[in-house]
Automatic annotation (TrEMBL):
A Pfam family assignment: PP_kinase_N
Enzyme class, broadest EC rank: transferase
Name this polypeptide is given: Polyphosphate kinase
Molecular function terms, GO-annotated: polyphosphate kinase activity
Organism: Psychroflexus salinarum
Entry-linked SUPFAM superfamilies: Phospholipase D/nuclease, PHP14-like, PPK N-terminal domain-like
Amino acid sequence: MRENKYDNRELSWLKFNQRVLQEAADPSVPLIERLRFLGIFSNNLDEFFKVRYATVKRIDLAGKAGKKVLGGFNAGRLLKEITQIVIKKQAESLEILASIQNQLKDHDIFVIDESEVTSEQAKFLKEFFLQKVSPALVTIMLNEIDKVPNLKDSKAYLAVKMVQLEKDRLSNRYILIEIPSSVERFVEIPSTNGKKYIILLDDLIRYNLDVIFNIFDYDSISAHMVKITRDAELDLEGDLSKSYIEKLMDSVKDRIEGDPVRFVYDKEIEQDTLDFLLKKMEIDTTDSLIPGGKYHNRRDYINFPDLGAKHLIYDKIEPLPIPGLEIQGSLLEKISKKDFLQHVPYQTFSYTVKFLREAALDPKVKSIKITIYRLASVSHIASSLINAVKNGKRVTVSIELQARFDEANNIKYAEKMEREGVKLIFGVTGLKVHCKTCIIERLENQKIKYYGFISTGNFNENTAKIYTDYTLFTAHQGILKDIDKVFDFFEVNYKIKRYKHLIVSPHYSRSKFSDLVEQEIINHNEGKKSGIYLKMNSLSDYGMIDKLYEASRAGVKIKLIIRGINCLIPQVKGMSENIESISIVDKFLEHPRLYIFQNEEYPKVFISSADWMTRNIDHRVEVTCPIYDEDIKQELIETFDICWNDNVKARDFSSKTENDYRKKSGPAFRSQFETYTYYQKKLKASKKNN
């Protein structure tokens, strides 16, 4: 038996982010999309340092009692290994960026810096700087202050070194310029020769250093970028007189002063400037110092403009309607007769909004209850709920204010909805509410009938365009009564409910999932058909991994599609030889949780909000919903199989080389493109039959 049964969670996450970087390097991906993958890689890394690296650092600082972390690693050693990997991958990302920008020149797109500005471009850039940039600049003269003000988390700064001649000797003056986020990072320069020119805001500021510091007489001036990443853990302890929202808002603001966990700097920065900054900011060598390139905050490349170059971005797909469910008609009438499945972004998210809008207007609808985790910045979901209140409906919203990095947005909407008369529930003490559910009560023939939906993803119009997720629309009274019990639990959470259909965390998921795996072991031992097929974002819970190892040793065939963290090690003799595992990273972010258990000839199929992570199983409110409609069950099995057959964007976890693309014979089969084709065919067949 292998000594180490699990991959380390943090290192597994870094491998996932390397798969994102692979997309940026992939020549088959359109050039501007490759830039955007670089942005995703950088944004992911920022969040990793704010959360996971910060957590490991706290474990290390806790002393001997907390030295061990996931996978049996010593915390201090793990911090060093993370830093080494990140430095290597940052360097690789810079090489990829340089390569992409060179290739853009072949398409008459030029990303220039301050040294390449022509005399024709100079006038526009000076005027743009004076009108748009200069009023937004925050400039900190460091020599004149005892301590650097707290630099904003993950903001980019230019560290300026000004060399002045004073009393016959040269002296250095150090300055920080905050790069304003209120101005677009990529400034398009008007062109008259058919070529397109972009200059980064950073270089535009460098080009205008003489304008910013025209009151100084200096010998030379230089500017190099730095940024700091802070611990993003929220502290909600303290003043008992404060409301929960007040504490949360204060805590979000306090992130500005969180402990630094990473300091990234341009590796070309002068050593005396770097030493001055580190001393002034009181950053010691235990923090993660990452030498980088000229530009930081490369997450901004997520929004790199397409410049009208449609051949350099992915073709936009037109989200399809759900066969048999006309969005112009009454959704409730159709759902009362049959369940329907929505699979975004292949099918339109508009059904979710239409469901709530119809409920808001329907005189027979008496109440709406919904859980909200992450809302879009402009949310039609929230507008529909407010509209329902105005029409006399009772609306209850369980909103998770601690959805990481969306706290401020959720608080904004919570306050708006509360002002309009929506009843708000702020989750359960000690548990995040991560389930995605909605239930409405409708009076039909003097009796209340339930309608609702259960989803694997957030009710968010923006992410629904780029995240793949399933939503079940149903009038199954048993399932919906169970959802109603979940809402009862939010309000009276000292009573543990019993559910006839749903699997609900934190009380039942571990035992129910274990029972489902155990039944497959029993079936296999009895010579019956068995198999376990799971698709999720992350798999890191040791107990569930051990149960899958047990099933593998018993001979049960297991297929895993894990996008992100995967602490299970497949294809190890005597431990996991019957487990195959892949990860798909492509145009869309794979987000559904889909669980299929063979169960002889009668597969049990579930969609869920829960990954198999300890936090989802034991420390959050999650809902796993069974699929009873045979057509939908078959659809889910078929879409799983489409993903499983991917031989273009699938990486093989059992490969000896890290993040190897899967080697599978046959013609190229790209699952996300094939999934869209699958739904086109279903729609065509439905129209033909009708």
